[in-house]
Amino acid sequence: MLHPTDLKELRDAVLDSSGTLGIAGAGTAADWAGPLGPVDAVLDTTGLAGIVVHNPGDMTVAVRAGTPLRQLQEELAPHHQRVSLDAARVAEGATVGGLVATGDAGPCGLAFGSMRDLVIGVTLVLADGTVARSGGHVIKNVAGYDLAKLLHGSYGTLAVIAEVVLRLHPVPEREATLAVSCSLTEAAELARAVLAGPHEAVALEWLGTTPDAGTLLVRLNGTAAAMDARLDRLRPVLPGAVDGDDRWAEHAAIVRGGPGDAVLRIGVRPSKLPGVLTALPARAITAGLGTGIATVVLDAQDVAAAHETVAAAGGTSVLRRRPAGASVPAWGPPPSALKVLRAVKQSLDPAGRLGPGRFDPWM
Amino acid sequence: MPLDGAARRAFEAVLDPQDVLSDPVRCRVYECDGLTGHRVVPELVLLPRTAEQVAAAVRVCAEHEVPFVARGAGTGLSGGALPVADGVVIGLNRLNRILEVDPVDRRAVVEPGVTNLDVTRAVAQYGLYYAPDPSSQQVCTIGGNVAENSGGAHCLKYGFTTNHVLAVEVVLPDGSTVTLGSDTGEQQGPDLRGLFLGSEGTLGIVTKVTVRLLRTPETVRTLLADFPSVAAAGEVVSDVVAAGIVPAAVEMMDALAIEAAEEAVHAGYTIGTPAALVVELDGPAEECGSTFEQVRRICEAHGCTRLHIAGSAEERAAIWRGRKAAFAAVGRISPDYFVQDGVVPRTRLAETLDRIAAMSRSAGLRVANVFHAGDGNLHPLVLYDGAAGETARAEELTSAIAELCVEMGGSLSGEHGIGTDKACSMPKMFSRDDLAVMARVRDAWDPQGICNPGKVLPTPRLCGEPGKYRPHPLEEAGVIERL
């Protein structure tokens, strides 16, 4: 186990070791994607922690990759600023670098996107010890290639993320959620009505254990002065709606899954979501009816077929929890751009040192 | 190496021969983009009509090692579509169909030659719009927007092209076709779509784009406020941001820019005021109204000398007409001008503008400032008279301003791209290793080096051998470390 505490130690750790390397942050996504193959060493990034520089007036923060997002949010809170990402595993200590490397996002991705939409700069270390940066400290910047995007969803296979610069948003004065009991199909209709109106929901998620019965959650962000009036206008669109502020923990619990569960994150066109989800033998579902991104809890033996079902609907899927010891395919049919992915891997990590197995069997 | 006959014949075999232009007079139309100071007449111009023809043409390029440059409307301001000598230009204007509009899933699928504004026009009937709005949106194409990751006045709140493109179909430099991104924007593995967006045509040619559409905001409120100084207007921006308000747009113009714009379009700006701010808020009616009041109070607290609130859609349009006319309008007060596009952290705006004013005085050239104050993206317009021999001095000042932005902790370019124009300034912003890694990524996509060569990354041929290493300004400030 290598445990660097600054950029120089990180680079030296990469240079002084030989053979394959796994990269580990808080370990909250260790069983996501393909299983890490046997490695000669594991590089623990949690020693690379803390804010490098926070510019409240510019609403940007540079932070070392091993910093838990939860901790970063606490440090930003006195400035009424936040990173607008609410992925379920943030509560478990997920690091900023890990959230980028896994391409994670939560319900408010509807309004703010995923980490790719929030990262404005990155410092990375390649397998040959090269330290490089892209982006910068300003939110608007088109100079050079955006290497942070390349690392988003790379699962530690292309480079070690050492530091990221994030754009921040103001913490809304008030967040409020309305909850409606309904089936998935009914929820899709309600979601359509919400999106067609002027409500500007920041999250629109249905959750349930079967498509026939569950709850639609609609979250608004805004000023304290206007929120009650906005909720009053939203209620008639959601007949029977009640206060749902405390329902998000249930949503997060489904996304995280439990022991023995296989969890799949899928994405299809929003209007296709109810059909695809109904066709899957899911034990629990969260469905982002505005984004088309859903999480399903499955038995391990159903994962391979689920990948096929999603691919047939033109969607994407990735394993987000593997039951201990089970052999479960992490990925479905390969994307058309696989050869680009392989070429980039070959160019940045020709010896295949980083993250072996994570994209098995693609590369 | 000039194009050989075999390559010419091969292009004519995969395209309709009338879509292959070789007459130098006709090819001259394509010799430059919006950066008119750089011109190269291409050997051939190819005007494919379908994505398949684009792929076939690129396959010919790969087979014969012919460099190619993709081109949309040619409105780019950084020379990203400058042709390559002995190469071909692939013009995409004929791929201009809107393939699908889906109001339910709020997206459109368009070909790259569709103009930015035509996307919004095609979806407006559903109460939807396409958010990125570069000033050239009436003519610039979505393909060009993808290449440049274009922004616009409203990207402070709504983000850039990269935040609004879910998927792109791309012809790679070997002529094969792939899809990057997906129906949801989710990518299985690394975000190749994100890397491609803003790669300035150096990684492939986009042939189909799936864009996300937004619902037209219920309420839009716009004000135009005059201030006794640029610094006072800058403080308003800071206070608005500190109050937790994210305006849809915040634009600033200085006296010279106001004078030029007002004389050109008579939009109701105050000639002689040192600075004017345009602030626009949008959103649900309840929220927009109270927040707008708050902005008005902040303006008054900073000595606003005149505050005009748009009372109608026409008045709002007039305010924007003044702002968007500013670039072209300086043509009325100066025979020639260069536009710069650097970005500084918002908190260093006033300091940067002071420095630009000092540089302007010592160069003996006027600089008009129009900029996106909310995100620190400056557009200094360096005014000069080429006929009076001021071109070299103006170019020097322009580069110095871009590099000043880097020194302030910002960027060489916020939305116009690096292209040919600023490639040689890249070492001011990035280290040799940073650039080397970018070059490795580029080589992975384009091992033959035929896809828009000479753009974005500095080359010895273009820029001379790299000089002695100088520490990056952020390194000197202790913000980043160089090992």
Describe the structure.
- The complex is a heterodimer of chains A (363) and B (483).
- Chain A contains twelve helices and 17 strands.
- Chain A has helices spanning 7-16, 69-76, 96-101, 109-112, 115-118, 147-151, 184-196, 224-234, 248-256, 273-279, 303-312, 338-348, and strands at 21-24, 41-44, 51-55, 60-64, 81-82, 119-125, 131-135, 160-167, 169-170, 174-182, 203-210, 213-222, 242-243, 262-267, 284-288, 293-298, 316-321.
- In chain A, the strands form four sheets. An eight-stranded antiparallel sheet of chain A has the order 13-10-12-11-15-16-14-17, with helices on both faces. Chain A has a five-stranded antiparallel sheet with strand order 3-4-8-6-7.
- With 483 residues, chain B is α+β, with helices and mostly antiparallel strands.
- Helix content of chain B is 36%, strand content 19%.
- Chain B contains 17 helices and 18 strands.
- The two termini of chain B are 41 Å apart.
- Classes of the chains: A alpha+beta (363), B alpha+beta (483).
- Chains A and B meet through helix 1, strand 3, strand 7, helix 6 and strand 9 of A and strand 9, helix 7, helix 8, helix 10 and helix 15 of B.
Q: From N to C, what is the helix and strand string of chain A?
A: HEEEEHEHHHEEHEEEHEEHEHEHEEHEH
Model regions low in confidence, pLDDT < 50 over at least 5 residues of chain A: none
Range of strand content of chain B? 15-25%
User: Got a strand count of chain B?
Assistant: 18
Question: Any idea what the shape of chain B is?
Answer: globular
What CATH architecture of the largest domain in chain A do you see? 2-Layer Sandwich
